[in-house]
Backbone:
């Protein structure tokens, strides 16, 4: 936990910079990592039965459905409102609707408490990344900004969610793996496969003020320097995880031979 916190704090500004200025290559690297990570939950499924396949399909549909729940028009509309509020704040215009602001802040904290619980739970799931679940829920960039800006109230709420999530979810996962091992692993596999749709690096986008709003998945019509770097980043991500999977298999074989001897 301490190691994770140190690296998150140390790399928050770097990741924020990369996502802002090199969005496609950064997402491409993540895509490559997750693409090969599919192997991890797949290998842990003992029997590929019909209920397992159904679990995989349900999980994929859930992730893709959640990612499509908010339309492009809604994303653009929210970005415009956010930009307008930013401009009002810069010009010194104060919003007199304090109750609405307070209520909105409470909802914001509740959302980040839930995201903390979900993200930390993913740390104990094979092949599932908490970062990608946060990307799916739309809070990844906000947490990076909170770390960079030392927003202690928001980080405290998020940390509390993490604590509750790890205590509650470990028990639930233990129960599910004991009673429905293959179906549970199938569902986790579906989450990983579904997340590939969310982190597909090539997307349409629209500029709202100084912010870029990324919208639907797309396939590049032409390949320039940015797209070539993105493909290279995908291959790097694939290579890293493939090496880790290969090395783990080699270690397991060595341990098995040692036990036999």
Residues:
């Amino acid at each position: 936990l301490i190691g994770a916190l140190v690296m998150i704090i140390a790399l928050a500004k770097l990741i924020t910079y990369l996502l802002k200025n090199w969005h496609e290559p950064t997402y491409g690297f993540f895509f490559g990592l997750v693409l090969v990570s599919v192997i991890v939950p797949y290998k842990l499924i003992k029997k590929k039965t019909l209920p397992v396949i159904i679990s995989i399909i349900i999980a994929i549909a859930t992730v893709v459905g959640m990612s499509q729940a908010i339309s492009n028009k809604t994303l653009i509309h929210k970005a415009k409102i956010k930009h307008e509020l930013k401009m009002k704040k810069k010009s010194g215009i104060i919003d007199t609707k304090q109750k609405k602001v307070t209520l909105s802040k409470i909802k914001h904290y509740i959302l980040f408490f839930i995201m903390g619980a979900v993200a930390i739970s993913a740390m104990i799931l094979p092949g599932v990344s908490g970062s990608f679940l946060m990307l799916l829920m739309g809070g990844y960039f906000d947490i990076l900004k909170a770390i960079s800006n030392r927003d202690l109230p928001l980080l405290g709420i998020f940390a509390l969610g993490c604590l509750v999530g790890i205590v509650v979810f470990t028990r639930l996962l233990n129960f599910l793996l004991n009673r429905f091992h293959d179906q549970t692993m199938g569902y986790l596999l579906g989450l990983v496969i579904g997340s590939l749709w969310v982190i597909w690096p090539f997307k349409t986008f629209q500029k709202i003020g100084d912010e870029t709003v990324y919208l639907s998945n797309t396939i590049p019509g032409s390949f320039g320097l940015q797209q070539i770097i993105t493909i290279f980043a995908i291959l790097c991500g694939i290579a890293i995880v493939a090496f880790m999977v290969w090395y783990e298999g080699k270690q397991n074989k060595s341990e098995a031979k040692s036990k036999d001897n």
User: Anything to note?
Assistant: DSSP finds eleven helices and two strands in the chain. Strands lie at 203-208, 211-217. The first strand starts at residue 203 and ends at 208. Residues 52 and 145 are 39 Å apart (CA to CA).
